[in-house]
Specification:
The chain is mostly helical. The protein has a domain of 132 residues. The longest helix is centred in the C-terminal third of the chain and has 62 residues. The chain is flat and about 90 Å long. The termini are far apart.
């Protein structure tokens, strides 16, 4: 195998790697940053794609995040690949926070107080999978509660991504221009000799 270890990892090395990766948790966000700024599109298109992915990550429809992000990015003129990268905002570390905050905020907006609520047996609701049973206690508050944070996060990510991509593309163009000028000067000096 091409990327196989020379000596197999011990149990403790595998356990440590499962709890705390050898290269740390920053590897994925740094990779996504580099992948995003190197996309070949306008800063607006890339930023709109990332914003669409982040926006969709706040919704409770996990299986539809990619499709929804693609649709929003397509309609708003965003980059489709960037929208897929933006959905990484919703991950196993952020989903519990997202779901709890959107449900609580949505319940507050809809005027459903904690005292008047009965116990929700989520396991039983999912087993039956009656959408009408899931809608009132769970999905409706999460959808309503996701609108404001999704717009705010999407806007913040749009601004941050736009300026990061614009800065990277400006630096890249300056490096290319300097390299071309250097090659032209070298060619001119070589022709004089």
């Amino acid at each position: 195998m091409l990327f196989k270890r020379r000596s197999p990892a011990s149990f403790w090395q595998r356990l440590r790697g499962a709890v705390w990766p050898r290269k740390g948790f920053w590897r994925v966000p740094v990779y996504i940053y580099h992948r995003t700024v190197r996309l070949r599109a306008t800063p607006h298109a890339i930023a709109m794609g990332i914003a669409a992915g982040v926006f969709v990550s706040w919704t409770p429809f996990i299986g539809l995040h990619f499709v929804s992000a693609f649709a929003i990015a397509f309609v708003l003129g965003g980059n489709l690949f960037a929208s897929a990268l933006g959905t990484a905002f919703g991950n196993p570390l952020t989903f519990p926070f997202i779901w709890l905050s959107t449900w609580k905020f949505g319940s507050y907006v809809l005027g459903r107080s904690a005292e008047g609520r009965q116990h929700i047996d989520l396991v039983e609701l999912v087993k039956k999978f009656e959408l009408s049973d899931l809608w009132k206690p769970l999905l409706e508050p999460m959808i309503v509660g996701s609108i404001v944070p999704a717009l705010v996060c999407g806007g913040l990510f749009y601004i941050a991504t736009y300026y990061a991509v614009q800065s990277f593309q400006t630096r890249r163009q300056a490096m290319i221009a300097a390299r071309q000028a250097e090659l032209q000067n070298g060619a001119m000096n070589g022709s004089k000799n």
